Amino acid sequence: MSGLPDPLAPAGFAVDEHEDGGNLRSVGFHYGEGFEGAPAGGEGVLDHDDPSVSRQAALDPAAGAVSLLPLSHREGLHGCPFDPAPMRHRVGDRVRSEGQATNPAGEGSRRPQRLESHHSEEELALSGHGHSARIDVVGRTLAAGEGKIAQFKRALDQKGPEASSVIHPQELPVPGQSVKGRPFAAALAVLLLATSLAACEESSTQPGEPRFGQQGRIQVEVSSAIAEGQGELNESLIWNSNGPWVLAERVSYRRILGGEHVRRSERNPGQLAQEYATFLRELHEAAEFRLLDGDLPQDLQPTCAPSQSRVTFVIRDDQRGESVRWVRCASGTLFELTPAEAGPDEGASRVAAAGRSLRLLTLGVERESVYDGTLPYATLDRGADSPASPENPRVFLSFTGEPPQTFREFWAEHAGEEALLPNVDWGSEAVVLAAVGERQEAGEAVEVRRVLPQQGFSTLVEVVQRVRGNFCAPAATRGFPYHIVVVPVVALPIEFVQPRVERVSCGF
């Protein structure tokens, strides 16, 4: 027996050739130690009554279970997992992965053979027709029940060294072939193993890594200056990957919050979740967005002109615990974003287009801001019951730059005799009180929604009375809800429109 290195053999194989009178009798492959296989189901992997093998014997003593590379259970040479081998003229697949018994019953394979059939007398007798072409596995094995699969009991790295298993390709009579050349049988066996392993790898599928933001949320925030920078309208729209979205709008004056309004999705969350996934794919792939292709800087913090809005677009990935953010300038509020006028770089139009698409997919084309066209205002006080018991809305103005007496009296009654007057520039500002009189149910509220200049000739104040739904069963109570705000004076007179009733959910 002489060991010859073979460049076609996988790492860890040694090739042994056995010579008998110039004819190649058998070739042995010895794989490295350390891989343990469970006992094969059934002994006698050779057909002893086959004439082609009856005159031969294994040249190596049977050493143990066969290791065919580090194959996992149920893998095989002709399928993944290995199917029952075809038995044609008593020639069958005689190679199995670790932990799997050889075919005992002669059941037909459900899978076609991968190799083309040849006659057995040809040089390349690759198919299972005739008696000569076969790969037999020789090893001492304990019968573990035919047709059953033995299980591993220990981790691979905990197993002790095992004796090398031997794979013997049976005699391939090749007239005139010298054993001193590269053994064809060795190359053939290695090729069969390599082909089968490659087929298994190609047939396996691995789930792709989820897109960034697939489990998380998408958010666009637009901050717009109003009344020549005296106030600000902030709109924040968040769409969660599980479907629901929420829009929060806020108006402020002198950096003091005046009003806030929240809208939530009412459509089926499952349908919204599907639309979210589609939109996220577009953000990754569509040419008009391409936000995550790496060429759109995330560190820009531009200073926007007074006529422009500051647009912030964020994608949050909850699994990774990371967020990506872009800040750019564009014209218009959330409902009127114009990508064509975005800046300061060329990629700003993609950020604005993403924000506009997010709004269209969630809110639709017919919605508008609840604060559309309003002057800014700041809240001085708001509550469910004023001690002053106001029955009607009022406006407090000054023509001297000093707090008017009517306001002093109201404030003392509302806030207490010792309370300080709020900070109001009476030369350019006015105080507006929204009230609807006494209410008999808990939870009702009143608020200033918009302050609308009327082409420089007057100013209208829009008041909303918020009441709970018909099935909320509110408790009976007595109170005078109110909302007191300060606004810049634009045009007089300041008048009120009829309060509009707005029904809200029971939990607001």
Provide an overview of this structure.
With 508 residues, the chain is of the alpha+beta class. The protein folds into 3 domains: 1-206, no CATH class; 216-363, Mago nashi (Mago nashi protein), CATH 3.30.1560; 378-504, no CATH class. It contains 5 helices and 22 strands. The protein has helices at 51-54, 184-203, 269-285, 348-363, 405-415; strands at residues 2-4, 14-20, 23-30, 135-138, 166-169, 216-226, 231-240, 245-253, 256-264, 309-317, 322-331, 338-343, 378-383, 394-396, 429-435, 439-441, 445-453, 459-468, 476-479, 482-488, 494-496, 500-504. The strands form 5 sheets. It has a 7-stranded antiparallel β-sheet. Residues 1-48, 51-59 and 66-182 have low confidence and may be disordered.
- pLDDT < 50 stretches: 1-48, 51-59, 66-182
Cα shape: globular
Describe the strand arrangement of the main beta sheet, using strand numbers.
Answer: 9-8-7-6-10-11-12
Strand content of the residues, in percent? Answer: 25-35%
Number of helices: 5
User: What is the mean pLDDT?
Assistant: 74
Instruction: List the domain count as a whole number.
Output: 3
Structural class: alpha+beta
Radius of gyration: 42 Å
Strand tally, please? 22
How far apart lie the N and C ends?
89 Å
Largest sheet: 7 strands, antiparallel
Roughly how much helix do the residues carry, as a percent range? 10-25%
Tell me the series of helices and strands, N- to C-terminal.
Answer: EEEHEEHEEEEHEEEHEEHEEEEEEEE
